[in-house]
Write a structure and sequence with these properties.
95 residues; two-stranded antiparallel ribbon; 2 helices; 2 strands; 27% helix
Amino acid sequence: MAEIKRTASCTDPTDKGKSCCRIESLLTVDERGQMVLPKELRDRAGIQAGDKLALISWVKDGRVYCFSLIKAEMLEAQVRDILGPIMSDMNPSNP
């Protein structure tokens, strides 16, 4: 019988924390649509009361397959880093 060669996936539990993503926790949505991020995850991510989070959805064939959260301040910095040089190049007053 031929041996099946396995490659590590993004969610491979044997990857010992080196993978790009993994199941951290299962959340329950209550009747008001709210859910709680576990304290350990909030602490590891540096999320505190009052922080703004951007919710990004990944859609394929009209269905949402994944949600991702990013602190709004981090998203703002990334957008600035990407768009700043582009906007600077487009500015006619920029030497």
